[in-house]
Amino acid sequence: MTSEIILFVNPTAGRGRGAHAAQPAASALRAAGFTVRTVLGENADDALTRARAAVADGTGALVAVGGDGMAHLALQAVAGTRIPLGLVAVGTGNDFARALGLPVRDPAAAGRLIAEALKGARLREVDLGRVDGRWFGTVLASGFDSRVNDRGNRMRWPVGRFKYDLAMLAELAAFKPVPYRITLDGGEVREVEATLVAVGNGPSYGGGMRICPGADLSDGLFDITVVGDCSRTTLLRVFPTVYRGTHVDHPEVTVLRAAQVEIAAEDVTGYADGEPLGPLPLTARCIRGALRVVGP
């Protein structure tokens, strides 16, 4: 394995934490004897082009510094290759890092863990989801939560997570369940009125909301959480339990499992790892062992 490591940095992640996190992570890697080269970009497309070129040239690992958005971008460069991915998670959500059991908002500890794991060849393979050529690590969200994202992304004020809290309240006032058509593994079809449908490769999104609490990154299957026709009162009562993952015990919640799922509904956007994929219908496939990751 080459001793050069590519540090893939989003300087704006976590309101500037990305820029500050790169230095202690790089210092930990250099102290362990690795050569570190930093890759930035003028925008997401430029950064991804540079990361893909670095991976094609060969590197010991691609280490993404940022949040779930940066991890999502890094997946597009390394998924399906033998180049391992390391994460220095300093964003707002950090759900993929949590799913992998990696340090969150401690860049020096993350750098040391990555260095030790690379020296000891402690790498493992995990599954990824794929939709129309786009890879994702955590959850493909649609329905109420994706409409909150749509509204939040249109808002110019306030900034940060509070914007999405306000967007949620606004959507809650107007939201009605959506007719969905869910096709599992190309065969079984379910037509339901649903508040949301979440396709989980990993268990959580939104900074720790365990929407698919039983999702396993190495079983080759998605956990698909379907929240049925809920009243606003029921939704407000169930929502806090998502952080514990106990919402799946509610009678309006169903969990399905499949290696491939198509979700179809009108006027609904799909988001994966918090990034917009486009309007439904979308077909997601769970690709077993698509990613090599550095860590425990």
What does this structure look like?
Keywords: ATP-binding, Kinase, Lipid biosynthesis, Lipid metabolism, Magnesium, Metal-binding, Nucleotide-binding, Phospholipid biosynthesis, Phospholipid metabolism, Transferase. GO terms for molecular function: ATP binding; ATP-dependent diacylglycerol kinase activity; metal ion binding. InterPro entries: ATP-NAD_kinase_N, Diacylglycerol/lipid_kinase, Diacylglycerol_kinase_cat_dom, Lipid_Phosphate_FormReg, NAD/diacylglycerol_kinase_sf, YegS/DAGK_C. Residues 1-135 form the DAGKc domain. The protein is an alpha+beta fold and 296 residues long. The protein folds into two domains: 4-121, 3-Layer(aba) Sandwich (Rossmann fold), CATH 3.40.50.10330; 136-287, Sandwich (Tumour Suppressor Smad4). The relative contact order is 0.17. It is built from eight helices and 16 strands. The mean pLDDT is 90. The strands form three sheets. It has a six-stranded antiparallel beta sheet with strand order 6-5-16-13-8-9. Strands 12-11-10-7-14-15 form a six-stranded antiparallel beta sheet. Strands 2-1-3-4 form a four-stranded parallel beta sheet, with helices on both faces.
